Amino acid sequence: MTNNGLYVALGDSFTEGVGDWDPSRPNGVRGWADRVAEQLTLADPGWSYANLAIRGKKLRQVIDEQIEPALALEPSLVSIYAGGNDILRPKVDIDAIVQAYDSAIGRLRSGGAAVLVFTGFDSGQSPIFGRTRGRTALYNELVREAADAHGAILVDYWRMKVLQDERYWDVDRLHMSPAGHILTAKKVLEVLRASDGLDVPELDTLPARDRIQRLKHDARWAREYLGPWVGRRLRGVSSGDNLSARYPAPVQITPET
């Protein structure tokens, strides 16, 4: 992609940047979308960027709250990824939510923007989140069909098997680490055929754990992260309830911002 313009990122915690912690930035995160915007701006200062994504949002919330504000900005490029929070709920109608997603992608395309969408991540190796693998596979097939129907650009997150390495994930095991966000940004830039000056950091050596140590490690994770996450679901609250969009109006950002 060589034309300059406005890039607008839509979605939930994945696109907001959770896991790539940076206290100097809005909501305390950076993320792959920021990194993509930085690289676009470095290659062509004519690019600007808005990010309307907020953690915890389900697909219909993303559609209802973010599509129209995004279109009002008249973007030339939009990325949208939603549905992961729906898939993790006890019950979900995948066909219904992706039908709504299909319509939203069409609405964005009708505004003249190039639209970038993602398949869902393959969590098959996770003993907890792996239980939703079948749902994600169905979601992915329907998203592929929607992308084909509307001429959207697809980033195949499912096939990024390198991300199966736990070092690409934050301690909560639900959001990517900085290295994971950088790797995803590189993939997005590759799909966009844009220049890429990003370096993936060298990964730390995984600690050796015997069976007892792994059980203790998993128990601590369940107590500190899984339990509170389940509790929020049961109470009907979200970690993003009191947050606003990080960049609701266009800005220019660089790695030094």
Defining key terms:
hydrolase activity, Rossmann fold, 11% strand, hydrolase, SGNH/GDSL hydrolase family protein, alpha/beta, globular, 257 residues
Q: Briefly, what CATH class of the largest domain? A: Alpha Beta
First and last CA, distance: 23 Å
Global morphology: globular
Specify the number of helices. Answer: 8
Order of helices and strands: EHHEHEHHEHEHHE
**Biggest β-sheet: strands ordered side by side in the sheet:** 5-4-3-1-2-6
CATH superfamily of the largest domain: SGNH hydrolase
CATH architecture of the largest domain: 3-Layer(aba) Sandwich
Output the CATH topology of the largest domain.
Answer: Rossmann fold
What is the radius of gyration?
A: 18 Å
For the record, the count of structural domains works out to: 2
Helix content: 40-55%
The tally of beta strands, per DSSP, is 6
Structural class: alpha/beta
Low-confidence residue ranges: none
Strand content: 5-15%
